[in-house]
């Protein structure tokens, strides 16, 4: 799948803002991870903590850029581990990661995708209601709200913005997001939706054919799913003079 072209970004995001201004009870949906929040700092912090516990000096200096997609072994190698060390630490590091990644304690380390707080705020100023729809389980709500507050995202107050989280930690993201569509529709008219995962982008494009559904071309699960041809892509959410 070809990467999005930055030259198209302003027109795509500008069109979303125009729809928000022109539509009474407009709703704009945003996924969280890799759509408006970059979780690589969270991933790096987990690797550093594992390195400290396991006595792996190279991992104590792990940083976000070591993560390229979701492959833990790639991150371990990028942090400086030899192939033999990667083989030794892959399984225990993955267990350590899984126990911590889906927690409030660690999602506090997330940072915004460039432009995201300003663009979400501009949409709210334009009159749109914001629906944050995420596969994160409810147990991550506290840390998610802390990240929102720290980085200037409009808070989910139940009036102008809502945070819809997966009610069952064992439920697949695909299933939850299908269920969430009805809850989002109850908030108003969906004029746009943003997600990084091709499967979810395509779900929204089919659910709301009149909406402007946008693929955020950061990373994704790696499943061999192509974004529908009619769905535009952006690299991040920087637009016009909106603050980053």
Which secondary structure elements does this structure contain, and how are they paired or packed?
Elements: H1 6-22, E1 26-30, E2 37-38, H2 40-54, H3 72-78, H4 83-101, H5 104-107, E3 111-112, H6 116-125, E4 129-137, H7 141-151, E5 161-166, H8 173-185, E6 189-195, H9 198-207, E7 212-216, E8 233-234
Parallel strand pairs: 1-4, 1-6, 4-5, 6-7, 7-8
Antiparallel strand pairs: 2-3
The gist of it:
The chain has about 240 residues and is α/β, with parallel strands linked by helices. About 45% of the residues lie in helices and about 15% in strands.
Shape: elongated
Average pLDDT confidence is: 93
Number of helical regions: 9
CATH topology of the largest domain, what is it called?
A: Rossmann fold
Largest sheet data? 6 strands, parallel
Strand elements, count: 8
The helix-strand sequence is HEEHHHHEHEHEHEHEE
Tell me the CATH superfamily of the largest domain: HAD superfamily/HAD-like
Summarize the amount of helix as a percent range. 40-55%
Number of domains: 2
**What's the end-to-end separation, in Å?**
27 Å
Given helix and strand content, the structural type is: alpha/beta
What does the radius of gyration come to? Answer: 18 Å
């Amino acid at each position: 799948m070809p990467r999005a072209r930055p030259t198209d970004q302003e027109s795509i995001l500008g069109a979303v803002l125009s729809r928000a201004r022109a539509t009474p009870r407009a709703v704009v949906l945003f996924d969280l991870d890799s759509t408006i929040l970059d979780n690589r700092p969270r991933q790096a912090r987990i690797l550093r903590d594992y390195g400290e516990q396991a006595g792996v000096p190279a991992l104590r200096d792990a940083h976000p850029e070591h993560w390229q997609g979701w492959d833990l072994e790639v991150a371990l190698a990028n942090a400086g581990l030899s192939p033999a060390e990667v083989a030794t630490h892959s399984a225990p590091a993955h267990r350590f990661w899984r126990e911590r990644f889906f927690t409030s304690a660690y999602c506090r380390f997330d940072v915004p995708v460039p432009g995201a707080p300003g663009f979400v705020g501009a949409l709210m100023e334009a009159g749109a209601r914001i629906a944050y729809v995420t596969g994160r389980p409810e147990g991550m709500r506290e840390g998610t709200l802390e990240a929102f507050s720290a980085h200037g995202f409009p808070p989910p107050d139940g009036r102008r913005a809502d945070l819809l989280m997966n009610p069952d930690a064992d439920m697949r993201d695909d299933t939850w997001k299908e269920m969430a569509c009805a809850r989002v529709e109850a908030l108003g008219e969906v004029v746009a939706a943003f997600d990084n995962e091709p499967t979810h982008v395509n779900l929204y494009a089919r659910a709301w054919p009149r909406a402007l559904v946008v693929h955020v071309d950061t990373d994704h699960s790696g499943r061999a799913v192509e974004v529908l041809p009619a769905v535009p892509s952006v690299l991040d959410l920087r637009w016009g003079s909106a603050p980053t």
